[in-house]
User: What shape does this take?
Amino acid sequence: MRLLNLLFPERRTTAVIARERLKIVLAHERASREAPDFLPVLQKELLDVIGRYVEIRSDMIRVNLGRSGDTSLLEINVEIDPTGVKPTKNGASGDGRATARTDQGVAAPWVKPS
Amino acid sequence: MAGKVIVLTSGKGGVGKTTSAAAFAGGLALRGHRTVVIDFDVGLRNLDLIMGCERRVVFDFINVINGDAKLNQALIKDKRNDNLFIFPTSQTRDKDALKRDGVGRVLEELKDSFDYIVCDSPAGIEHGALTAMYFADSAIIVTNPEVSSVRDSDRIIGLLASKSRRAEFNLEPVAVHLLLARYSPERVRKGEMLTIEDVKEILSIPLLGVIPESESVLRASNTGTPIVFDEESPAGRAYHDAVARFLGEQREMRFLQPERRSFFRALFGRA
Assistant: This one.
């Protein structure tokens, strides 16, 4: 058995699959367990506001609450596509209403995968 | 005397909490410690059956919490060991009858006359399970090498760190231990079961013991005998080792290799 493992390292046994699935799901669950409840809502509202000015997809924004020592750090990363910066002028759509051009289709990855 | 409160918990049901609580309490008592084992599974009591005292239950945990009975009227003395007492729960009430203040009061009273108070938690993360873990000094997380059990254990470890009395009052955190039960060396060898190392790495809490899957556990529950009283059983001996480690002794892990059975034992013997 040992020799086999040396010759064919890391066979994809069902136990190996179980271990990998558990590691992934628990990494997500631990991060979201420590995160306060308001983060998803905050991310959505930020997305709406930023979307009034530039085109943005929901996977381009990450909101994360970190901690270092005794300071809490609210970290907001907004990614903007340099080629496709199309300012959606606030209120320029004619009727004077701000329109949020956001794509809500992608699952919000507001939890940083660790 | 200031007894220590140990909770056996798991999140998932059917992993062997009650078997382990009975075995652990029995093991502590056999080593000379005055021990009481309490059933927190209100409405689904089973510890009395596993301990073999189901016909001796008169008063229960809820009666004592509500002041309808005295502690010494409800405690059942084990027939095999003078250090061991069973504190059954109510079969008719529901889990909300476990008032936290009342439970705390009863546990304080028990601490005066026992070295160890072993709490058998119900499954789930509802009121009953949260109450069982709230007062714990130590927690033993009973886990099977299987995905849903490991995930639920992780959740329970998180709750112990945030929802226990020790967390609430910023005391030293609950000492958390892993007890890996129903482990099958043969299935691990075939790559069909998570290894000890896998579970240890994923949950990252210290390993107290590994209990091999054993036919003797069902035989013990059939007769209402905690498995530690069966000297022949590998599972029973593995529980003894776990108790010894809990008390600070160094012991090698045993029963981790697939059993080699001779032809004659395979034909006539018992596991």
Summary: The interface with chain A takes residues 146-147, 150-151, 154-155, 158, 188-195, 198, 202 of chain B (CB under 8 Å). The CA atoms of residues 137 and 174 of chain B lie 5 Å apart. Strands of chain B lie at 4-9, 35-39, 76-77, 84-87, 116-120, 138-143, 175-183, 207-212. The radius of gyration of chain B is 18 Å.
